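Re: [ENG-882] Designed sequences occasionally contain unexpected residues at chain ends

Forwarding the minimal case from QA. Structure tokens:
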């Protein structure tokens, strides 16, 4: 995030139509870019017998060997799980050595959140694990995870993250482990001097197994497949950013819980440079639509006005206006399933909301 500048009030005007007086169905509100067709293909997929877990991986211009190593790590530690890899329009189309894994290719980029949603529509198991394309799994993770998550139909679980690097991908030699996160609604980024965060996660310094979490981080997220779609998944996101806060907030507001699964650990490669370009306006868009759909009007206005000016902010605002029909329809749907409001969430975790 860039340093904050002069605030400019931004209003999302409701289109002059009569289509916002009642909640839309799931199918009516997911017509965004190419996610509509994927939702139709995957929604209600028959469950098939295996280990009852679908592992979802997304990749864009990821090194070939790294994706293969990630898939192999999953297969070696949990041979019977379903593995779904979404190639998000990589410049060189991805292929998989593991022929049991399912490969889905996006012809146009959907971004990390959108691709994770697309991957979920192809899942045939009762539970999904959302992870990245540059990770390593410890032996025994599957049994520990399934023992915990199976009897919790409305819970999003976040595992622990072992810090790896491109030059050191051996879990047994890694020393730094992150477990759980808290949401920083607005405030200084502790890792970047002079930069503020808006609706981003921060690693917890201390944590205990099964504690409630206000946010998730680390790319090891378990949730029931039906619950993922019940809360709307990640279908409105563009590019990169805001998917972790979105899943956590929607889970809490819909009456579920977010819990730490501390003893399930994966090694996650932290890189100084990304293998793809990130358009900042898409991150702004994601945070704005999260605020609009999950907060009351006053709260959403505060969040939207935190961003500084410039071409990226202007582009995000224009896209919000263009997608107003879909965003407001999503808001109506979410409000029909939410049993808690955002202030409840803020109070539960003692978060600070900007004035």
């Amino acid at each position: 995030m860039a340093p904050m500048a002069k605030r400019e009030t931004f209003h999302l005007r409701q289109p002059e139509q009569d289509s916002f007086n009642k909640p839309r169905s799931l199918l009516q509100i997911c017509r965004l870019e190419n996610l509509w067709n994927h939702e139709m293909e995957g929604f209600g997929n028959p469950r098939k017998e295996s280990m009852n877990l679908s592992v979802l991986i997304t990749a864009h211009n990821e090194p070939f060997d790294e994706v293969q190593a990630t898939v192999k790590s999953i297969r070696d530690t949990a041979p019977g799980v379903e593995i779904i890899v979404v190639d998000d329009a990589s410049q060189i189309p991805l292929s998989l050595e593991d022929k049991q894994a399912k490969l889905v290719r996006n012809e146009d980029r959907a971004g990390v959140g959108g691709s994770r949603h697309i991957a979920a529509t192809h899942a045939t198991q009762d539970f999904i694990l959302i992870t990245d394309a540059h990770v390593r799994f410890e032996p025994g993770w599957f049994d520990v995870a399934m023992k915990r998550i199976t009897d919790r139909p409305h819970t999003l679980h976040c595992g622990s993250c072992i810090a790896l690097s491109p030059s050191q991908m051996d879990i047994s030699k890694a020393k730094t482990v992150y477990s759980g996160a808290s949401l920083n609604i607005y405030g200084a980024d502790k890792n970047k001097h002079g930069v503020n965060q808006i609706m981003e996660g921060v690693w917890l310094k201390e944590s205990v197994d099964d504690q409630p979490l206000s946010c998730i981080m680390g790319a090891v997220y378990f949730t029931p497949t039906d619950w993922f779609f019940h809360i709307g998944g990640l279908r409105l996101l563009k590019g990169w950013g805001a998917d972790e806060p979105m899943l956590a907030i929607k889970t809490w507001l819909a009456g579920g819980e977010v819990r730490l699964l501390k003893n399930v650990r994966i090694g996650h490669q932290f890189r100084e440079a990304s293998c793809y370009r990130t358009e900042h306006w898409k991150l702004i868009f994601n945070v704005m639509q999260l605020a609009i759909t999950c907060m009351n009007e006053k709260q959403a206005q505060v969040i939207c006005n935190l961003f500084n000016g410039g071409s990226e902010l202007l582009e995000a605002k224009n896209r919000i206006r263009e997608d107003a029909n879909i965003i407001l329809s999503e808001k109506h749907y979410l409000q029909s399933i939410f049993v808690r409001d955002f202030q409840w969430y803020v109070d539960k975790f003692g978060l600070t909301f900007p004035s």
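QA comment: On inspection the terminal residues look reasonable. The longest helix spans residues 280-294. Proposing we downgrade this to a documentation issue.
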